[in-house]
Amino acid sequence: MVESPSRKPETAQSLVRLDDVDRRILRELQRDAGQSLEEIARAVGSSKTPVWNRIRKMRDAGIVGKQTVILDAEALGFEACFFVLVRTSEHEAAWQADFLEAVRERPEVQEAHRLAGDIDYILKVRVKNARAYDAFYQALISQVKVHNVTALLSMEEIKATTALPV
């Protein structure tokens, strides 16, 4: 089927209408996805089967993704968080593919974003210390040519969340 250019593709949210109970379930899952179905049902004022069916529907629609565990970086010795600003003079598809591969294969990179404006990319890099950051930096620039790299050390994490305001 060919889509008409005037029609926007449907998003997961447009395929699944979320009501207040769905939103309460999502808030509970974001708060603690490890809680039992019974605990979620109690928190949202429902019973287990309807809650399970709603969660399954939201999973099938792509609204609820994989479940993971959030680890305490500092407790594991990853005490340094750097925000790395990358400028490039290269804008060819081959360079971008090489850069994306380099970033994706580095476990120190927790987030990577392509930006509009003067900075081309920003990376959130979590390492044990400055020496570990330098090893990351040296590995990155040995894989891809970059015009300028600026590393900003986070002195204090004021807020960190993965929760969306549903």
Question: Can you characterise this structure?
Answer:
Helices cover 39% and strands 16% of the residues. With 166 residues, the protein is of the alpha+beta class. The chain has two domains: 12-60, Arc Repressor Mutant, subunit A, CATH 1.10.10; 80-153, Lrp/AsnC effector binding domain/regulation of amino acid metabolism (RAM) domain (Alpha-Beta Plaits, 2-Layer Sandwich). It has a four-stranded antiparallel β-sheet. The radius of gyration is 21 Å and the shape is elongated. Residues 1-9 have low confidence and may be disordered. This is ArsR family transcriptional regulator.
Topology, please?
Elements lengths: L11 H4 L4 H12 L5 H8 L3 H13 L19 E8 L5 H13 L3 E6 L6 E7 L2 H14 L4 E6 L13
Antiparallel strand pairs: 1-3, 1-4, 2-3
Helix pairs in contact: 2-3, 3-4
GO molecular function: sequence-specific DNA binding
Organism: Rhodosalinus halophilus
InterPro entries: ArsR-like_HTH, AsnC-type_HTH_dom, Dimeric_a/b-barrel, Tscrpt_reg_AsnC-like, Tscrpt_reg_AsnC/Lrp_C, Tscrpt_reg_HTH_AsnC-type_CS, WH-like_DNA-bd_sf, WH_DNA-bd_sf
CATH architecture of the largest domain: 2-Layer Sandwich
The dominant shape is: elongated
Would you tell me which CATH topology of the largest domain applies?
Alpha-Beta Plaits
Order of helices and strands: HHHHEHEEHE
Rg calculated over all Cα atoms: 21 Å
Distance between the termini: 33 Å
CATH classification, class level of the largest domain: Alpha Beta
State the helicity in percent bands.
25-40%
Domain HTH asnC-type: 18-79
GO cellular component, one term: cytosol
Organism: Rhodosalinus halophilus
GO molecular function: sequence-specific DNA binding
